[in-house]
């Protein structure tokens, strides 16, 4: 059974590419970020990639069991790790504000 899980994880890792958008489920919340399961592989969303707005704790943004959409930031097949972002799906409010001001 563990071999099957390892094979699934490896297959997912080999198909992931930076920039891909995937759906997953928040599997755990830590001080440094949250882990999102995308069907057999848990990838990390670092706290800096959760939201553009200020928050005190990752649990202010997501909760365990919540379905989320992530952007793949990086994949390390050797280490069997993937990094994801939630905020990459939304425009940077600072850039939007600066663009608006330069037009006005």
Order of helices and strands: HEEEEEH
**Cα distance spanning the termini:** 61 Å
Low-confidence blocks of residues? none
Portion of residues within helices: 10-25%
Strand order of the largest sheet: 1-2-3-5-4
Secondary structural class:
alpha+beta
Sheet-strand content, in percent, reads 25-35%
Mean pLDDT: 90
Quaternary status: single chain
The rough form would be described as globular
How can the largest sheet be summarized?
5 strands, mixed, barrel
Q: How many strand units?
A: 5
Tally the helices: what do you get? 2
For this entry, give a set of tags.
104 residues, alpha+beta, 2 helices, 5 strands
Short description:
The chain has 104 residues and is of the alpha+beta class.
Can you walk me through this structure?
The chain is α+β, with helices and mostly antiparallel strands and 104 residues long. It contains 2 helices and 5 strands; from the N terminus they run αβββββα. A hairpin with a 2-residue loop joins strand 1 and strand 2 (33-37). The radius of gyration is 16 Å and the shape is globular.
């Amino acid at each position: 059974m563990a071999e099957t899980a390892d094979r699934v994880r490896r297959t997912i890792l080999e198909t992931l590419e930076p920039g891909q958008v995937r759906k997953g489920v928040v599997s755990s919340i830590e001080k440094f970020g949250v882990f999102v399961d995308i069907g057999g592989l848990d990838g990390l969303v670092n706290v800096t990639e959760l939201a553009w707005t200020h928050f005190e704790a990752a649990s202010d943004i997501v909760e365990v069991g919540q379905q989320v959409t992530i952007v793949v930031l990086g994949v390390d097949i050797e280490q069997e790790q993937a990094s994801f972002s939630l905020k990459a799906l939304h425009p940077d409010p600072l850039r939007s504000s600066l663009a608006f001001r330069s037009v006005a």
